[in-house]
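Q: I have 370 residues here and want to know how they pack in 3D. Can you give me a structure?
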Amino acid sequence: MKSHFQFLQINLHLEDYKFAILCFVTAFIVTMMSIPFIIKFARKYSLYDMPGERKEHVVPVPTMGGIAVVTGMMMALLLWLPFHYEMQQLCFFFSIVVLFSLGIMDDLRDLSAKYKFLVQAGLATLMAVSGIRITSFEGLFGIYDLPLAAQYTFTLLTIVGVTNAFNLIDGIDGLAGGLGFMSLSTLGIFLTINGDITSALIAFSLAGGIVAFLYFNFNPARIFLGDTGSLVLGFSIAVLCIRLMQVNTSPALPHAPMFILSIVFIPVFDTMRVFAMRIWKGKSPFVADKTHIHHLLTTAGYGHAFATRLICCIHGFILLEVYWLKDIKEEYILLILITFMLIATTVLKNLRVLFKRRPAGGFSRSFIEN
């Protein structure tokens, strides 16, 4: 059975997705059933994310929702993933266990950023040694095959950078989960098209757990993902992005580096923008403040629900736009992406001014917040 998406020019063989659906549904059910118990446990032992000057919530909220998401993902993979005991597979799941444990410790004790960075760098190196590496830029900037040292360098920077970017963008209800679900679903589809079913099942399993989590995380959130979940989410997306670059032979994706960049572009661009602004002002790039893309909206008075929906819509637009622009040079696509995000962040920063200038008869603030 085939399904043809004319506007995307993709032929999907739906029978290829039967195990993907099983993984998605299994992870969804397990996560959905687990979260109420985690919320109850967190309340019993006062495991809350407490309000603070640099946080958006005003009441204590149970954290470590990532426990349920990772449990759902692992249960789905245990049931439906054909394990081959390959080095890449073993290293990936070892890394997930380590990050999962690191996230729990951080949610409980607030570990130092330096310690977390060293662990992430070690796991990124392990994945590179196992064979998950950026081996080529596929013509971007005229660069094709990379020397081995460059492969390890770019792989380490990518995995650590994307992992932390998703961790940093997890600042308002539903945002990290929403962006993560869209990215994982996209990765799962294109990994399946390219015949890497194992990696696709990982993507769909984590996506299923994230969807169930979002039911409890949409504003007002009943539980937060915590570092327990955001670290695993970012790391998994980074590894799957590199894997898609390695296996891509599909004519539907002739510009894999730029399309894969679009999958993580909002959190990565936002992190780089915020770090650059802090350095420009003479501050440490690692000192937290309220200048991330979601803060631009909440500071202007807009609610979490509106901010999350708007940023996710921008993410969806970027994915479609980069895919549709696949016939132009990748350097031009990168320039368009950067220009678009610079304009978007400027507009978001000035939404309050634009709203005040809206003529009579425009939408009310309460409508926008809801």
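Q: Anything worth noting?
A: The longest strand covers residues 2-5. Residues 56 and 172 are 7 Å apart (CA to CA).
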